[in-house]
Amino acid sequence: MVPPELEEGLPLERVKEFSLEELLGMAVKAEIGARNFYESLAERIEIKELKNKITWLAGEEKKHEELLRRIYANTFPGKEIVFPKEHIGPELQPVARQLHGVEDIIELIRWAMKAEEMAAKFYAELEKMVDTEEKKRLMRYLSDMEWGHYYNLKAEYELLLDWAMYSQMMNVGP
């Protein structure tokens, strides 16, 4: 079941239907949503090490947003960013819904992993569309960074699974 904080969005194949301007608008919007999600998630986490990692991820998403805003401003001077209603892949909206109904931290981490995977694929598709080697390198960098976030979350996810399994085993008793 997909929690209400995650909306699937358009299929990734539809990337080719949008202009670079629209795609950059979607990318900035996605980075804002990811940062908000991680900030909201960090507020709910009591495990200090995990909270620090999630807070770090929020900061990384903020850096991506700022970078994309600079690219937009350089590519489309004097234009305001238009955030299209459409979006590619998961869009996390925890502030609006305040993560209602989702209590399982493992499930939240799993959906965050999916969002990072979709973001990585999104930037990989953008790399194929941009016209200069500089922009291609930037999109590749962003894709690689999102994959890095994915693997950071995956490590935490696996630790949480192991901890949950260990915790259950400790409660079995004679």
Main attributes of the structure:
174 residues, mainly alpha, elongated
What does this structure look like?
α2 packs antiparallel against α5. This protein has 174 residues and is an all-alpha fold. 29% of the residues are buried. A two-stranded antiparallel sheet has the order 1-2. The N and C termini lie far apart (35 Å). It has helices at residues 20-44, 48-75, 94-97, 105-129, 133-172, and strands at 6-7, 91-92.
Q: In terms of per-residue confidence, which ranges show pLDDT below 50 for 5 or more consecutive residues?
A: 94-100, 169-174
The pLDDT mean sits at 78
Helix content: over 70%
List how many beta strands DSSP finds: 2
Rg for CA atoms: 17 Å
Main structural class: mainly alpha
Beta-strand content: under 5%
* Distance between the first and last residues' Cα: 35 Å
User: For the largest beta sheet, what order do the strands appear in spatially?
Assistant: 1-2
The SSE string, one letter per element, is EHHEHHH
Discrete helix count: 5
Largest sheet: 2 strands, antiparallel
Question: What form results from the Cα inertia axes?
Answer: elongated
